[in-house]
Amino acid sequence: xxxxxxxxxxxxxxxxxxxxxxxxxxxxxxxxxxxxxxxxxxxxxxxxxxxxxxxxxxxxxxxxxxxxxxxxxxxxxxxxxxxxxxxxxxxxxxxxxxxxxxxxxxxxxxxxxxxxxxxxxxxxxxxxxxxxxxxxxxxxxxxxxxxxxxxxxxxxxxxxxxxxxxxxxxxxxxxxxxxxxxxxxxxxxxxxxxxxxxxxxxxxxxxxxxxxxxxxxxxxxxxxxxxxxxxxxxxxxxxxxxxxxxxxxxxxxxxxxxxxxxxxxxxxxxxxxxxxxxxxxxxxxxxxxxxxxxxxxxxxxxxxxxxxxxxxxxxxxxxxxxxxxxxxxxxxxxxxxxxxxxxxxxxxxxxxxxxxxxxxxxxxxxxxxxxxxxxxxxx
Length: 379
Description:
The structure is a single chain. This protein is 63% helix and 4% strand. The protein has 379 residues and is mainly alpha-helical. Strand 1 (191-198) and strand 2 (203-210) form a beta hairpin. Helix 4 (123-157) packs antiparallel against helix 5. Belongs to the G-protein coupled receptor 1 family. Its main location: membrane. The chain crosses the membrane at residues 55-80, 92-117, 129-150, 170-190, 221-243, 272-290, 310-330.
């Protein structure tokens, strides 16, 4: 989920989480300078050129790609395959899985090759398209997580029985992609594919880097800070507020009616979705901090700069496969569906691990009638 371009010393930003950035190091053009700081990353000090380190990086990225493709594909398959999985919340979860699939297929393979070779081998067109698709995916992810939190807040905190309709949810998903496409556009527009000559070692390499107006990195830094706010700080603030209010609302419901299966399912689902957000935030936090320090030229003097950048990037990319694991751990529908798939069992049209929805609803309604309360809205 990163863009390509740490090759050019004039490009101090890369636009992402604020654009899921790539990190091939940015100082190759300075290798021929007599006054080059020996502590800056270079061919002679780049530990990622070590064979054992490269094998470890290949193994790590390959595992993330494999788990991400398998897990997110299964999530989408189950929502399409089973009727009772086609809920508004699950449609948003499928959208989240689709964004992660984009990362696993359009980001990580290119990132791995670019990291190992320190050269962009994929041509001018992909130089623009790959960073754009990567930025697009992270925008979609955080917007979707925010929408899920707000929708559950609307229904649970305000006791609204009317959930979003399917057409409305599909419209919101479409709007999410449109907004994400606009926010990610600078990563495709302000980009340059060119060749760099490194005379002292007689080397000519292709680079894919940002090229902001006026030939400075000021606009890149402004974009980076803006995206940090829009993609991380502000959304996580909104999500935290929404889930805190939801949790307090559910915690304070102690009547017999609200101890029903419906309330318990709401609590479990809310825990699961909140944990998805926490994992996303924790995975991306180290990368954001390091990226911000890089934009401000605070960490480039470190000899292990590129290795640190790569490790933080790997941690961030772990968020692309953790969601299906969380669903399988905390949701019986997903867990049973995954088990049926891997056991090649007969697959009915619906998954009902805890009895039918109708049975649960009738049980909850009966409890409410006994207490004279209104039943909670469907999850």
